[in-house]
Amino acid sequence: MRTTIVHAPIDAAALMAEVARNSNGATVLFVGTVRDLNDGRPVNGMEYTAYRSMAEREMADIAHEAATRFGTMDIVVEHRIGVLELGEASVVIAVAHPHRGEAYDASRYVIEQLKQRVPIWKLEQYEDGTREWVSAGSGKREEGSGPIGTHLDADDDSVVEAR
């Protein structure tokens, strides 16, 4: 089991290989990507920011919960931060289990909990040049959903002015 936050593109095939075992009959791969439309507005990119130390702890807790609940230690989660282009993977979750139902359930549990609990924020960049914080869970702008006016620096957890 492994969870981490990364700056570089995520290699989904490497994550699948990491959870591969002869005892597993199912591997589920979830890849969340930057899409070109949100709430009816054309998007041309995304910037992810995190309170890194807290986010990594919470991601690890979620993976441990899923492992206990669904009976597999074969779980790997990587979430990317920084500026991403359309189509790039922002989060990849690989789960393997002897049975498909538990693999699917564990993967869904991880992504749903990640969206609710992990302090990672996204700043959407729209084609008209505007940028707007959106709630990670709903895809819609919400007051208090992101670090409005300031954000936590992804490398050292300090507060810096938003760009």
Radius of gyration: 16 Å
Multimerization state: single chain
For the record, the count of structural domains works out to 1
**Proportion of helical residues:** 25-40%
Mean pLDDT: 87
Please provide the count of β strands: 11
Coarse structural class = alpha+beta
The largest sheet, given as strand count, sense and whether it forms a barrel, is: 5 strands, antiparallel
Q: Per the principal axes of the C-alpha atoms, what is the gross shape?
A: elongated
CATH class: Alpha Beta
Bin the strand percentage: 35-45%
Tally of separate helices:
3
Q: CATH architecture, please?
A: Alpha-Beta Complex
CATH superfamily: Molybdopterin biosynthesis MoaE subunit
Order of helices and strands: EHEEEHEEEHEEEE
Q: How far is the N terminus from the C terminus? A: 35 Å
Outline of this structure?
The chain has 163 residues and is α+β, with helices and mostly antiparallel strands. It is 28% helix and 37% strand.
Question: What can you tell me about this protein's structure?
Answer:
- The protein is α+β, with helices and mostly antiparallel strands.
- The chain is built from 3 helices and 11 strands.
- It has a single domain, classed as Aldehyde Oxidoreductase, domain 3.
- Strands 3, 4, 6, 8 and 9 form a 5-stranded antiparallel sheet that branches. The chain has a 4-stranded mixed sheet with strand order 1-5-7-2, with helices on both faces. It has a two-stranded antiparallel ribbon with strand order 10-11.
- A hairpin with a 6-residue loop joins strand 10 and strand 11.
- The C terminus is likely disordered.
